[in-house]
Amino acid sequence: MGDQVCVDVGVCTYRRESVSKTLASLGAQKLPPNVRLRVIVADNEPTPAAEGRVRAAAFAARLDLAYVHAPAQNISLARNAVLDTMEGDWLALIDDDQEAEPDWIASLLAAAEAQDCTAVLGPVTAIYPPQTAAWIAKGDFHSFRPVRDHGRILKGYSCNVLIRAEAIRRSNLRFDLSLGRMGGEDDDFFYRLTDCGGTIGEAPGAHVYEPVPASRATMSWLLKRAFRSGQSHGRRQLRRRPAARLAQAGLAGAKSALCLAGAAAAALNPVGRRKWLVRGALHAGAVARIAGIKELEMY
Question: What is the pLDDT of residue 141?
Answer without folding.
Answer: 96
